[in-house]
Each structure stands twice: as C-alpha cells, then as structure tokens.
Amino acid sequence: MKGNLKKIFVCGGVSYNAIITLPDFFEPKPQTIHSCYYNETIGNTGAGKALALSKLGFHTTLHTLLGSDEYTNKVKSYLNRPNLDVLYVIDPNGTERHLNILNSKGERISIFTNPSSENPLIEYEQYRKKIKASDYVVINISNYCRNFLSMCKELNKEVWTDLHDFDGSNTYHQDFIDASDYIFFSSVNMKDYESFMVQMIKSGKELVVCTHGSNGATAYTHNNEWIYEPAILDFELVNSNGAGDSFFSGFLYAYSKGKIIQECMKFGAIAGALCANSDELVSENLNKNVLETIYLSLSKILCF
User: Fold this and answer.
1) Which one of 82, 105, 217, 301 is most buried, counting C-beta atoms within 10 A?
2) How many CB atoms lie within 10 A of CB 209?
3) What is the CATH number of the domain that holds 157?
4) Overall domain count for the chain
C-alpha cells in the first residue's frame, strides 16, 4: 500500500550487544589478541528497523521481548525517542545479548550469549487493534513473532519480512516466507539467490529484495523486472552492524512516498551507507531530510 501512510507495527528482537572490531578474523587457534576496538550498544533486527523507521518520520510501534535485568534499562535508553512506542513482554530468559565480532570488510560473526525464549507466554490478541491501525506491518523472524502471522492474514494486512542470511532450505523460515508479501534477505548464504527470487514472485509475492553487502542489492518485482543498485562506498566503513535494517527502512521510507522501486533501492543504499559509517545500530545522522538531500545530490551527479 503506497501513499503518505505513516503508522508501522514492527515485531522483532532487541538485544544488548558487545561488539569487537578487528582488522581480520583470527585463525581458529589458541592466541592472545592485544588490540581491538570494543563497544557496547543496542542490537538486533527489531530494534534496528524500529529505530531507523522512527527517525525517518514514521509513527512506529515496536513489539519485543525484554528481561528483568540490568540490561533492560540500557536498552530502553536507546529506544526512548520520538515517534517510537515500545510494547514489550518480560522474557524469563532475560534480555537477549550478543557478542558480535566484525572485520574491516564488514563481515560479522554473531554469538548469542543469552538468547531470548522461543515461546514466551504472550496474549497476542491484545495487539490486534495496533496491527489493524497500522499502514505497514513488519514481522521479523524471532520465533515468537510467527504467532502474529495468522492475525495479519485475518486482518488482510500485507506483511514485510527480512529473512537475513536464509540459506534457501532452512524450514525455520517457512512460516514467514508463506505469510509475507514483501521479502528481504541477504545473499551471504545463498549462491543461487536469483532462482529463489523468481520462485517467490511466481508464488505470488509483490517484491523480493536481496542485499549483497558492499556489492549492492538486487530487486525482483511482480512485473518480472530486475533492478540492481550498487552500494554507496563513499562513506568510510566504521561498523556494518545494522546496515541491512537501515537499508530496509530507507527502502520502505521511499516506498511509502510512492517512489518507483529503482528510487527505493537508492534510498535504501543511502540509509545503509549512513549506518555503516556509524558505531551505532542506526546512524545518529539518519533522518528524512538527510536522506532526501543525499538522494538529490547523487541524482545530480548521475544526471551530469
């Protein structure tokens, strides 16, 4: 659904992450590493999308899981911002935590040091009105989120999802694939990503977008149109964490304005590049004015 609609319901994980950045991944042998860049910040795809979308002017509702522990207030401090309402359920496992190891190429090894509960007790029905009132619904692949899918179908809501590093065969993702109208994923674990994209469109999806990190992104539409967008490499790579969520959010921002898919891909690339230029999950410089300004400047260069 296009237009100037601004309400978004996002369901997905939030974590508190420790991040180690090294020039290269270390060899798998006993050793001592004396120097690295280390920081701690909020993480996970629910937080990444919700923060980016709220910064881009959407009225965003984030549903997630948080613990009753010392990390909850740290996470809440990042989520306390305009345009973002956070609805959370207490997870008996505690706040989700990750250790992310990054290298200078933007590649990542992610270790779940404290995963969230697979099936927490949630009264899903209480969120029906929120979903019904939303113009866009984003259901991420945290296990508990799959229980929102049938409600979205009952309410005739189009579902956007992000399969991340789906390998093309993992059955965990199937519920999300079946229920979604707009699918994003990464090619990192899927060499034959184009065949998967064609399969998705043949099955009735509206749009499929595959991101390739520093090699750009590819879209395939329900009109059987292939669209490739190169990554924007003019920004220094500081930290690639969250870049995919920012790409998704930049794309959706442009889509909500009625822009064509090629333009949406460009907006996604800009948002992703801004994220990769930041230490945070979402760039502190991200907002709709910055996004529009960079888009116009790039358009002038391309026209020239």
Assistant:
1) 217
2) 24
3) 3.40.1190.20
4) 1
